[in-house]
Amino acid sequence: LIGKAGIKIPFLEKKDELRLQLIPIDVKTSSAVPTADYINIQVDAVVNVKISDEPAKLQLAAQNFLNKRVDYIAGVAQQVLEGNMREIVGQMRLEEMVTDRKAFGDRVQENAIPDLQKMGLEMISFNVQSFSDQNNVIDDLGIDNISQIKKGAAVAKAQADRDIAI
Fold first, then answer.
1. How far apart are alpha carbons 61 and 71 in whole angstroms?
2. What is each CA distance from 42 to 86, 132, 137, in whole angstroms?
3. What is the pLDDT of residue 50?
4. 11 φ, ψ to 5°?
5. Which residues neighbour 42 within 8 Å (Cβ) at sequence distance 6 or greater?
6. Are 49 and 65 in contact (CB under 8 A)?
7. 95/137 Cα distance (integer angstroms)
8. What confidence tens digit (pLDDT) does each residue in 83-101 have?
């Protein structure tokens, strides 16, 4: 029964539960993963999944998670999501991931949704929280942009001063 009340006849019927609530999962790569340009990074993301309410997927979820606690379901989903996230990190360049988090998230979702559906789960949202690396490559990308902006501003100021002098 989904969202309904019912009567259980003792000794003849058994009550099993499958919670259909939203499950938030913090997905982090447990160790550094090399990108397509061989830079080791760690990714932190937040994902929301839930048991699907489609009858066929609900039956799959019941086979996999009936009477299981929410933290067990979250743990299984987290392993699947981390594996898919590691796979996509290995396919993309660091600069692509950092500048277009949405594209990274979309690729992880495309990869992970079929795996989750096979267990009766559906992904509601996927949000990348942060990328980090031990060699400060991400910070260095920012420093390069800052120095180019400062250079452009200095050139513009020099041209403006020259124009004023003329």
1. 15
2. 9, 5, 12
3. 95
4. 70, -15
5. 28, 29, 31, 32, 33, 131, 132, 133
6. no
7. 10
8. 999 999 999 998 899 889 9
